[in-house]
Amino acid sequence: MEKRYLRDNLDADLEERMVFVGGPRQVGKTTLAISLLGHDQDESSPGYLNWDVLADREDILAERIPSGQSRIVFDEVHKYAQWRKLIKGLYDKNKTSVSFIVTGSARLDYYRKGGDSLQGRYHYYRLHPFTLMESGDTPDAATVERLLKFGGFPEPYLRGEELFHRRWQREHSARVIHEDLRDLENVREVSLLDLLLSHLPACVGSPLSVNSLSKLMQVAHESVERWLTIFERLYVCYRIPPFGAKRIRAVRKEKKLYFWDWSRVSDPGPRFENMVAGQLLKYCHYVEDTEGHEMEMRFIRDTDKREVDFVVLRDGRPEFAVECKSGERSASPACRYFRERTDIPRFYQVHLGTKDFGNAAAGTRVLPFATFCSELELP
Fold first, then answer.
1. Global confidence as pTM
2. N or C: less crowded end of the chain, CB within 10 Å?
3. Total Cβ atoms within 10 A of residue 341
4. 7-126: which CATH topology?
5. CA angle (41, 44, 49) in 5-degree steps
């Protein structure tokens, strides 16, 4: 893997501002950040400061930065409650001679809203797992199968070993629950969050009922909602809202939930749908972070339970819709129904086979997922 898909964008932005890189644990943020220091750099580089290393932490708090370095990486510094004030001071003092790269969890994104003391001093990027066009392999059916099986996180995907993947996934969950949660959130019911996390993969692919989850776990609705929000901040999962249009009786409340690591989902159909969701979310975040457009991902479902899995919106206007089918089926009747009643210009139905055909009546193109990603030039 020569370089990640955000590498050139980060490199260019560092000429004038700081860059913040958020994303899930072990998605490759540190490796990407260190690559911006130079090709021969690693975690022993003087330009890399990790909050979890005591000596580095003392230097950061004392505002001592290494001399002779044109770029500095601050890793996991968001664990410090006043990190934004500290980084602001360092940047204002050194911005003419040093560029700063800050990496960490969702806290970077969560606290940038509202009264942001760093406003105008940085660009924020969200780093995603590998998807089809970034996998380093030929974007074909075999690559899709590998991504489905091992997910897109670099270590398990590149290793491609079932035993390693199972152990990695178990350890990853434990670290998120027992380390990141402890550092970033004030939560007492850790065992209940563990239980919730183990149940959520079965919820992928259908509208998520928080009420049902609260009854299952015998806790208040507000507690489950808060815990789901925490998982979203920690880049464990994300939810997408329904898409409403005047001519359809759209559902309006229930959202759909997906995982950043789609390999958590055991059922093949929902796992494929989750992988497609990950690709589309990566596309939306890439366009937002590099071009500044307002991007949204939603789903269509009406009160008669007709559904299309995803709609991508750019600046409030629908760009295209995507339905997921594991087999090479004819276009879903729901695509035709919503095509006639919405202003969505393009409908796609992606699958895991090889057939590529259009359906004039439904106004939908049915095509392999690999072809879809390649033709739309998704990141």
1. 0.94
2. N
3. 15
4. Rossmann fold (3.40.50)
5. 100
